[in-house]
Amino acid sequence: MATVDLKDVKKVYPSGVEAVRGVSIAIPDKELCVLVGPSGCGKSTLLRMIAGLETISSGTVAIDGKIVNSIGPTERDIAMVFQNYALYPHMKVYDNMAYGLRNRGTPKDEIDSRVRSTAKVLELTALLDRRPRELSGGQRQRVAMGRAIVRNPKVFLFDEPLSNLDAKLRGQMRVEIKNLQRSLGVTSVYVTHDQLEAMTLADILVVMNAGLVEQTGAPLDIYEKPASTFVASFIGAPPMNLLPLLQGPAGPALTDGKAVDFAPANAATLGFRPEDADVTFGADAPSGALVLPALVEAVEPVGSESFLHCAAGGNRIVVRVAGRATAKPGDQLRVVARTEKLHWFDNAGKRVD
Amino acid sequence: MDDFLNSEGITLSPRVVFPNKTLPYLLVAPQLAITLIFFYWPTGQALYQSMLREDPFGLKSKFVGLANFRKVLADPAYLNSIKVTLVFSLATAIVAMGMALLLAVMAEKVVRGKGLYRTLLIWPYAVAPAIAGMLWLFLFNPSIGSLAYALRGLGIAWDPLLNGNHAMILLVSAAAWKQISYNFLFFVAGLQAVPKTLIEAAAIDGAGETKRFWTIVFPLLAPTTFFLLVVNTVYALFDTFGIVHAVTGGGPGKTTETLVYKVYNDGFVNLILGDSAAQSVILMIIVISLTAIQFRYVERKVHYG
Questions:
Q1: Burial, B65: exposed, middle or buried (Cβ in 10 Å; 0-12, 13-18, 19+)?
Q2: Inter-chain contact A73–B204, Cβ cutoff 8 Å?
Q3: Which ranges of chain B would DSSP assign to H, the alpha helix?
Q4: Which pLDDT score, from 0 to 100, does residue A351 have?
Q5: Mean pLDDT of B138-148
Q6: The dihedral of CA A61, A66, A67, A72: what is its sign?
Q7: Are residues B111 and B207 in the same domain?
Q8: I need a surface site. Which of A268, A332, B80, B246 has the fewest CB within 10 A?
Q9: Average pLDDT, whole number, for chain A?
Q10: Do B93 and B183 fall within a single domain?
Q11: Domain-located, residue B90
Q12: pLDDT confidence bin for A217, thresholds 50/70/90
């Protein structure tokens, strides 16, 4: 049970590359914090610094209120699940799980009872005598989880643990990890590049880009109020539609010259989510709404919903329609975005309210 | 030919089939010829000779069956030679592999000039056995050797010319020194093949550096270690003839006369061809069984991947 506090953490490699450029995050006890961002944004480096596998160039990392900058991974009392699981190939599942406890001098019978009870929770009991190479990807993933859980550490660290699994298993494991983390009540840091994983798992979501935090908050808050165009385009699938605005004589206008009179004066980009717009074939449109004439280029039916990929005045936009789409590629239609659901961003890409 | 054909008429058999019956035999003929002339013929000769006894002048020989073997195996000098070989081979393999592993682990830790260290550590392998032997012989020569002088300075009565143990130590040092480079090369490659995340996982699991090495790295090096064990044993048994010949010539007494050296000594120096041939046959059996045992039992405890 512990908090994790990062204060202005930086990582500069000897080559001069700045992987992390000053990150501050406070993770309360028992919460799951997800670091999400594109590859190369520094999220894995940050996780490895919390683990003690990378040195911290400046700033502090504190676990349970104690600064751990100079403490090695061995003494930090953390457990980590690696992307490739990093199971010891020469040890049986049982020994893989018992290894950490043995190193810490836990009595033999306690090791046995803890390994067995953890194995039971993860449904690994039948596999305890197998070696990692005799296991499927999903089973290996469970063993890696078991190895972390059995030690009952202060903090769990997950480094893209699900990215080697197939989509179906990933969905299952996502729910399982969430449930386990909640029932064990262990503070966790989870790194992923998958925004769906990030949204569904996080208590606190941290969106990173180029070594900096773009936005921190509850997943739905971030979804509803992205702080920048980067967050807007990264969180949500398909991503938010972003349309550049020009500064016309009567305030901001679309690229085709049509004024958007309800836009804030300093707006440089307009955004709306695919589900916050409707399509209409008729010529009449509600006044005050944002109406974009568009040409359907592709239709993606997902089953419960369909996504229309359209070209609208040099911009590509995606609109979600419920159920089966009536529009076909080549159709000319109008996209009507709900005014109250529009997002505005300034020249620097920051949100304007 | 009744290979399976798919719809395109392409054979699904993984084997390449030659349309010509004699071509494949012609292609393997050179290799077969080399094997037959340089391996099977001498082997046959040794087997044949081991059952003959020649008169002192080499004028006529007599078939004596297994008498040569009986004589050799009852000879205390031969039994002594087995013991010497055992000590020498084990010591050489252990020293050569142990030192190489130590150096490889150290070289892995070096950050700057890794390549230079590795290159320098590989050089001794290029030195011929007899030359390596001579180097060590001079270094440790009781009257002119600089290192022998240092040893005497430390109060050790160093004298490999009279003391059998000293001679053995000298021989093992020379033989192992030459083999360290080879082992080093393989251990470095083996260490590089150990995934870094495993080491990190072990560190997070609370294992200190020494513990990580013995519980994770060393077991994962097992395939390399096993391979080197076979290579080093064979090296110590056979390829060290040059070193023995240059350094001690089997002496003092017969304290460093290995089996291979004794085959040479009895056959080419003392010209007791029957005994010598019988000894080579025994040696052959030893090596075949040793290799079989190693592959059968040691490999079973080796985990690949």
A1: exposed
A2: yes
A3: 23-35, 41-49, 67-74, 76-109, 114-122, 129-139, 146-153, 164-193, 196-204, 209-212, 218-220, 222-234, 241-247, 259-264, 273-293
A4: 92
A5: 81
A6: negative
A7: yes
A8: A332
A9: 89
A10: yes
A11: yes
A12: very high
Q: How far is B196 from chain A (nearest CA, A)?
A: 9
Cis peptide before B76 (omega within 30 of 0): no
Residues of chain A contacting residue B200, judged by C-beta atoms under 8 Å apart? 51, 53, 73, 80, 82, 86
Higher pLDDT, residue A28 or B302: A28
As a whole number of angstroms, the distance between CA B228 and CA B226 comes to 5
Query: Residue B186 pLDDT more than 70?
Result: yes
Would you call A92 an interface residue with chain B, using a CB distance cutoff of 8 Å?
Answer: no
Give me the number of domains chain B comprises.
2
**B58 is a domain residue:** no
* Residue range A241-246: mean pLDDT, rounded: 90
- Domain residue limits at B10: 1-49
Question: Using one digit for the tens of pLDDT, what is the confidence trace for A60-94?
Answer: 999 998 999 998 888 888 999 999 899 999 999 99
What three-state secondary structure class fits A201?
helix
Q: From the list B195, B203, B219, which residue is nearest A90 (CB)?
A: B219
Q: Which residue has the higher pLDDT, B85 or B300?
A: B85
- pLDDT of B59 higher than 80: no
Q: Round to whole Å and give the CA distance between A20 and A18.
A: 6
- The answer to whether residues B256 and B155 belong to one domain is yes
Rounded to whole angstroms, the Cα distance separating A95 from A131 reads 9
**Cβ of A316 under 8 Å from any chain B Cβ?**
no
Taking 60 as the threshold, does the pLDDT of residue B12 lie above it?
no
> Which CATH class for the A239-352 domain?
mainly beta
Residue A92: CA atoms inside 13 Å, Cβ hemisphere, count?
A: 11
Q: What is the CA radius of gyration of chain B?
A: 25
Q: What per-residue confidence (pLDDT) applies to B246?
A: 80
Same-domain status, B95 and B215: yes
Alpha carbon separation from A320 to A238, A301, A310, A329, B40 (Å, rounded): 9, 10, 11, 15, 79
Segment B105-117 mean pLDDT: 82
**B143 found inside a domain:** yes
Count each helix (H run) and each strand (E run) in chain A, helices first: 8, 20
Separation in Å, CA of B192 to nearest CA in chain A: 16
Q: Are B105 and B4 in a shared domain?
A: no
- Nearest residue on chain A to B205, alpha-carbon basis: A100
pLDDT of residue B4: 46
Cβ-defined contact of B219 to A80 (cutoff 8 Å): no
Are B83 and B140 within one domain?
yes
A295, amino acid identity: L
Which 157-176 residues of chain B touch chain A by CB within 8 A? Answer: none
For the stretch B222-231, pLDDT in tens is: 888 888 888 8
Find the mean pLDDT for residues B82-104. Answer: 91
From B219's Cα to the closest Cα of chain A, the distance in A is 7
- The reply to whether B194 touches chain A by the CB within 8 Å rule is no
Identify the CATH assignment for A4-233 out of 3.40.640.10, 3.30.1120.10, 3.20.20.80, 3.40.50.300: 3.40.50.300
The domains of chain A are located at 4-233, 239-352
Give A312's strand partners. A315
B120, B134, B146: which is closest to B170 by C-alpha? B134
Q: State the number of CA atoms in the 13 A half-sphere of A205 facing the CB.
A: 29
> Please, what is the Cα angle at B287 between B284 and B291, to 5 degrees?
145
User: Which residues on chain B are in Cβ contact (under 8 Å) with A100?
Assistant: 204-206
